[in-house]
Specification:
Layout (H helix, E strand, L loop, with lengths): L11 E2 L24 E8 L2 E9 L10 H5 L2 E3 L2 E5 L5 E4 L1 H14 L7 H14 L11 E10 L12 E10 L7 E5 L17 H5 L2 H9 L4 E5 L7 E4 L3 E6 L3 E3 L11 H13 L3 E3 L4 H10 L2 E8 L3 E10 L2 E4 L7 H13 L10 E3 L1
Helix pairs in contact: 6-8
Bound molecules: pyridoxal-5'-phosphate (PLP).
């Protein structure tokens, strides 16, 4: 973490006297619907962050003209804390999410959150709710930092006031079976000069109708193509994508600012390279994917993301054709999932220094 340039801002902590922990069934936790006891909040006004605090989780009043709701200055992050094999509370690569959050903030003309304060907020909040980190296989504590404009104003301009918050939710597995993915042929998610690299709320809002249609057609997710030619593969709704060939792996490069630079993506590239398999970060067209599938060169496809971890593609639908993947040929995705899980829970040593044990 970088050293703060101003005196460290204190975080006021008001703990709950009424924990809900005992009422949670950790064997059956639906994703994103159960919230831990506390939340972090701070407010930006007069060009500074104020009132950093941790409070019992609760609804909050919102002014009807809150500009974040109207004009979309709203960004978020997604990260996780894991329970180590010896009971440790472990944050996975928090520095990456903090940096990405501030990159999103810059794109949306929102104030940066000082890295040291952001990090301390995470450590204090997760420390207070550490008993909420599940220990079941495939479970973890999902962490949702977010920021939205709070200026009470109707009119389009850069807002002056913002709220930054962090919520946490214990979660189980996101996908329990291989995913069916539809290639987007009509809608686009991102294009050069847009906000594809940022975790801006509007990026996700715009994908709801295409997602709804894909679900209606029996798919779980949409695979986005480039927004200019509908040719290069970009990513899935909440995952980066990896194509496993017989002798190498290809993942779309993020150089055009149209793809979210996933923390899981970065970790998986490192793990695969260290296994001795080359990973190429480059443009890959959907036509290349389809022809490599037919020639037998393309063995598996998987998505990577904090929520889903590693999601294998069972089926890919494009132009009326269904590419069905042969599960008996999958091996790299299983290896990567086992490896990253072992590192995150310290079941094996973390050679990369990714884990921060609280
Ligand atoms: C659009 C998009 N792509 C990729 C990812 C994967 O990123 P990460 O591995 O950092 O979770 C996410 C999830 O955050 C996402 O929303």
């Amino acid at each position: 973490m970088t050293t703060p340039t101003v005196a460290a801002q204190p975080i006021a902590i008001r703990p709950t006297h009424d924990s809900r922990l005992a009422s949670v069934n950790f064997d059956d936790i639906p994703f994103g619907r159960t919230f831990s006891d506390h939340m972090f909040i701070m407010d930006y006004r007069d060009g500074q962050w104020h009132d950093a605090r941790i409070e019992p989780f609760a609804p909050m009043p919102i002014h009807p003209a809150c500009s974040g709701i109207h004009y979309g200055q709203s960004i978020f992050e997604g990260m996780k804390a894991y329970r180590g094999v010896n009971g440790e509370a472990i944050l996975f690569r928090p520095d990456k999410n903090i940096t990405r959050f501030n990159r999103s903030a810059a794109r949306m003309a929102m104030p940066a959150v000082p890295e040291e304060l952001f990090h301390r907020a995470l450590v204090e909040l997760i420390g207070l709710d550490r008993d909420w980190i599940p220990d079941r296989d495939g479970s973890s504590l999902y962490i949702r930092p977010f920021m939205f404009a709070t200026e009470e104003f109707i009119g389009i301009k850069v807002a002056e006031n913002y709220r930054f918050m962090i919520l946490t939710c214990p979660v189980g597995k996101y996908y329990t079976k291989p995913v069916a993915v539809k290639v987007a042929e009509r809608y686009v998610r991102a294009f050069p000069g847009g906000t594809g690299f940022a975790k801006a709320a509007g990026n996700y809002g715009a994908t709801m109708e295409p997602m709804r249609q894909a679900r209606e057609e029996g798919y779980d997710q949409v695979l986005w193509l480039d927004g200019v030619h509908f040719r290069d593969v970009h990513e899935v709704g909440t995952m980066n994508v990896f194509f496993v060939f017989k002798d190498k792996v290809i993942t779309p490069s993020t150089d055009e600012g149209t793809i979210l630079e996933g923390v899981t993506r970065d970790s998986v590239i490192q793990i695969i390279r260290d296994k001795g398999t080359p990973v190429e970060e480059r443009h890959i067209t959907i036509d290349d994917v389809v022809s490599a599938f037919h020639s037998g060169e393309l063995v598996e496809i998987f998505g990577t993301g904090t929520a889903a971890t590693i999601a294998q593609f069972g089926r890919l639908g494009f132009k009326g054709e269904q590419l069905e993947f042969d599960q008996s040929r999958w091996s790299l995705s299983d290896f990567v999932r086992t490896e990253i899980t072992a590192i995150r829970t310290l079941a094996k040593p973390d050679p990369y220094g990714w884990n921060e044990v609280l």
